[in-house]
Amino acid sequence: MEKLFRSSQRLLNQSSSSIFPHRSNPNFEHLKHISGSSYVYGDICNAYIKPYFECETRNLQAYHPLKDYVGMFRAKTCRIQYKHFGSTATTVQRDPSFSILSSDDIDYFVEILGEKNVFQDEDKLSTANMDWMRKYKGSSKLLLQPRCTEEVSQILKYCNSRRLAVVPQGGNTGLVGGSVPVFDEVIVNIGCMNNIISFDKVSGILVCEAGCILENLDSFLINQGFLMPLDLGAKGSCQIGGNVSTNAGGLRFVRYGSLHGNVLGIEAVLADGSVIDMLGTLRKDNTGYDLKHLFIGSEGSLGIVTKVSILTPLKLSSINLAFLACNDYLSCQKLLLEARRKLGEILSAFEFLDHESMGMVLTHLEGIRNPLPSSMYNFYVLIETTGSDESYDKEKLEAFLLRSMEGGLISDGVVAQDINQASSFWRIREGITEALMKAGAVYKYDLSLPVEKMYNLVEEMRLRLGLSAKVLGYGHLGDANLHLNVSTLQYDDSILAQIEPFVYEWTSKHRGSISAEHGLGLMKANEIYYTKSPETVRLMVSIKKLLDPNGILNPYKVLPHSPLP
Amino acid sequence: MEKLFRSSQRLLNQSSSSIFPHRSNPNFEHLKHISGSSYVYGDICNAYIKPYFECETRNLQAYHPLKDYVGMFRAKTCRIQYKHFGSTATTVQRDPSFSILSSDDIDYFVEILGEKNVFQDEDKLSTANMDWMRKYKGSSKLLLQPRCTEEVSQILKYCNSRRLAVVPQGGNTGLVGGSVPVFDEVIVNIGCMNNIISFDKVSGILVCEAGCILENLDSFLINQGFLMPLDLGAKGSCQIGGNVSTNAGGLRFVRYGSLHGNVLGIEAVLADGSVIDMLGTLRKDNTGYDLKHLFIGSEGSLGIVTKVSILTPLKLSSINLAFLACNDYLSCQKLLLEARRKLGEILSAFEFLDHESMGMVLTHLEGIRNPLPSSMYNFYVLIETTGSDESYDKEKLEAFLLRSMEGGLISDGVVAQDINQASSFWRIREGITEALMKAGAVYKYDLSLPVEKMYNLVEEMRLRLGLSAKVLGYGHLGDANLHLNVSTLQYDDSILAQIEPFVYEWTSKHRGSISAEHGLGLMKANEIYYTKSPETVRLMVSIKKLLDPNGILNPYKVLPHSPLP
pTM for the full model? Predict the structure, then answer.
């Protein structure tokens, strides 16, 4: 009881000022795979593509027999090769129904777009052919930069009639190889369509072209007292059209939810060039099927998003951050429930990490200090609040923390006193990936699972691997998004074989998702059955055929390359 | 300045306790049309259907030539007759491709469902054939009550092969004739599928069968400390499957948003009997097209929703209500902006009414007292807050009101001191419809429009009609949902001709919606072009053909009966 009291005092003593943490690059964890890779790029018919090693050998027992179609295509294929260890490789064949670009095609595009928006030079193309992690590389010979919807329409109408495959490209910041060509697809980059069309300060509804960069939109809105409902590490490059097309999640998800809830309307161009105007700016509209949702998250495979209407929340001024310790995972769950109940309307982040994650950071990163040094606890939780009134919000947070401490949910904790302290707390959470890289090899999984079952997977994996590896569990508990990471001194196929397909089967069995927010792209197109039922995939394929009968839009992505089971 | 100070004091003096208002039936305004109606019901081929008079003569100049197809069908038609005044009537013909029910069909259904779930008796059928407002009546000879998804699948598979038309029915509480047969469609009522499947107290995710009554779900959740993210006047009868199928809005929309944001997954049965399992329970899942959105708001015309997974918010304990006066509409808009900024996270309602609406209530309803009797103001606003901490929330509201008063946005105002006072404030807002009925004839429009332009329509209508009518504007300002009402002593075609099609054209011109939350059903299927573009409707039609090639699911609803423009 005495300890509880002292801890509570500490919480209260340290909470003296509001903070606004500058977080480090939240996508930093994705950078780790780049180190030490060697890439071999082939020609159109023999390009080596190196995806994440998150997506190694997948035994799709759950739904479809991978064996049946692996090796079906041997000639003129684009092999997907896996890094460091030689597990099963799948192949993607260039679709022979697509035409090869001709000089007449170029002439046509120059005619409709003007010479300066038709790019064939190697410098421009080499950048656009490769994703920002330098893991995927295509061999496109042409990049087009339309300046308006009508030009996008003319391009697609022509490409469809000529059966020229197209890859829509925004900021090219995707993580699953969705925004670069696989072979020689024509790149349609919408970066020149970057005008803000309107902003309604009363309703907070922004209408803009799809090529607007997320950070620019956010800066514009902040000047108006609003902010974008999504925030990504790539915000300086990614474009809103790409965000919508990939249903980007990001840091503000726990507070503002999915783009399916925030996007009010879009304008999209279908494969045949038809422009679908669904650019409503209304929160309520029940006049028929809400087809914009088809284009949110379909990764450019159903149409190119050209304009977006989005509901933006007000920018609130008061931000607080607490770093807490819990003895067990059940306490973390209960704390989440209590935080939702007591802080509900001001809760803006609820992140967790386990003791293995904390140990990893303390061991491998310099300048990191444990905010709760008296003991190593089993779990750590970061709770951030964002509200409209500094003093009330802080009192509310402090009262909540005191009650949780007295109730035994929290074993210890501190509240950041200033922006530096807040940044140091976030550094622990966001430094896990960097620490893992320094520790050696890492097998990394980004899963969405029911919160109550989420940590069972970490514990089962720990039992499964024994002393051969360290198993870390951390992530966005408030969004039910687990980062499961297995750390070893060096890569070992036998370790991988113990992890996969177990991790995917476990996720599938618990109705989880193998891609919480990154999409499927090229990388996970064949893994779809771990999360989606065959009937749902069949329906997806039918919709794709309906909207893009020639399959010219972003081929080889999202949908499985194999025959349907 | 002195007045401001006194007003502010009043605000502070009166705000002494938290309240939980019991509102009157929020759908009461829809009851007005029933009074004095006389209905003539014909047989299958000559059924008289009486829709709202919100949907009188529609000159669809905006997009499609109504003239071209009005009167196309004369024989064996179901006439849509308009009440009281003889404007243009449109006709719906029974689709001759649908089969007529045979005794063999009945035998089959008895075989798969058992005798007690196959209804042919007149009592049961007469209730199910008619909507709850007694405005629409079909002539179905058969009602089926499946008990599980597999039975729904067997029914649809059979109906599809036999080309028997089907109307899916939940609680039959819709307002646009969407849930009753138009002719002899087989009624598939899912009310027996009413089990709660699971509830996760940590994530707040509820999974249940589609026949669960909304109020039962809400009661279940309240015991768990949660609540449904939607609340309707019809909650005692309506079913969650129907709510999802119609994308129901309701009272909690301004706080929790649309079902597109809250529904995490569904299971649906397509016309051919295939079961599509999209019953995810994850907040994050980016594995391909999110096809559940096709079924949210498609009014049962693409499939029958059989199970639902929904994210439910925590029930918060502190509720406060203020009744305020503003001098002009610009102040109302600014107040909304400020309320979002200062109360943001606890704001749960922002309703407005103009002086004509207030005058109507004070004149025609008994026992209504003006909470601000010192003067008649141009606009009145109700602001409700719902939060987790009574004392903090109240202080926050009071500080906000004081600032708004000092800033000149509010001219006067009171905060409810107890539940009775809160109910009396809500009674004013919700009594407008009843008052309008007592005043004589009313022409009623439920529109979604950009907030900044919304009241322009009321003013233009007032100028247009001059002294011949009273024009009232009120509604859910926080949702940009306007109730435009024109009140006259008696119905008059010349008044109607001045209102329509002007009101629809104005709504269309400002990219508004002619159906903010009720859907299209039978009533507004032909009006879709006022809000949706022809290309979007074409795409809707394609999707309908893809998912239901024989068109057996809820025919004559949602999609226009006319050839596409």
Answer: 0.81
Best CA proximity match to A193, nearest among A144, A251, A132, A258 = A144
Domain B196-311 in CATH 3.30.465.10: yes
Q: Say which residues have a Cβ less than 8 Å from residue A127's Cβ, sequence separation at least 6.
A: none
B288/B457 Cα distance (integer angstroms): 42
Number of helices and strands in chain B (H, E): 19, 18
Q: Does A410 touch chain B (CB under 8 A)?
A: no
Instruction: Supply B55's token pair.
Output: 């949907």
- Interior/surface letters A319-345, b for 16+ CB within 10 angstroms, e for the rest: bbbbbbbbeebebbbbbbbbbbbbbbb
The pair of structure tokens assigned to B496 is 């109607």
Would you say domain A318-510 falls under CATH 3.10.20.80?
A: no
Q: Which amino acid is at B468?
A: S
Picking from A418, A401, A398, the residue whose alpha carbon sits closest to that of residue A410 is A401
Give me the mean pLDDT over the A380-408 stretch: 91
Q: What is the spatial distance between Cα B544 and Cα A405, in angstroms, rounded to a whole number?
A: 56
Which of A471-485, A510-524, A528-542 has the lowest average pLDDT? A510-524
Q: Is residue B46 over pLDDT 80?
A: no
**What's the whole-number average pLDDT of chain B?**
83
Instruction: State percent of chain A over pLDDT 70.
Output: 83
Interface ipTM > 0.95:
no
Nearest one of A91, A88, A147 to A493, comparing CA atoms: A88
Would you call A337 and B512 a contact, using CB atoms and an 8 Å cutoff?
no
Contacts of B246 in chain A (CB under 8 A): 286
Contact B428, B352 (CB under 8 A): no
Report d(CA B23, CA B428) in Å as an integer. 11
CB distance B480 to A283 below 8 Å: yes
Helix orientation angle between A534-547 and B534-547, rounded to the nearest 10 degrees: 140
Closest residue to B448, CB basis, from A285, A314, A392: A285
Residue A75: count other Cβ atoms within 10 Å of its Cβ.
Answer: 7
Interchain proximity A282–B536, CB inside 8 Å: no
Contact between chains at B204 and A558 (C-beta distance less than 8 A): no
A346 touches chain B (CB under 8 A): yes
Q: Which CATH architecture has domain A103-189?
A: 2-Layer Sandwich (3.30)
Question: Where do the domains of chain A lie?
Answer: 103-189, 196-311, 318-510
Q: Are B274 and A535 an interchain contact pair (Cβ–Cβ within 8 Å)?
A: yes
B288 within 8 A of B301, measured Cβ to Cβ: no
At A130, which amino acid appears? M
Residues B448/B453/B457/B463 CA torsion (nearest 10 deg): 170
Rounded average pLDDT over B369-373: 94
In SS3 terms, A256-287 reads as: HCCHHHHEEEEEEECCCCCEEEECCCCCCCCC
Alpha carbons B424 and B51: distance in angstroms, whole number: 32
Say how far residue B130 (Cα) sits from the centre of its chain. Answer: 18
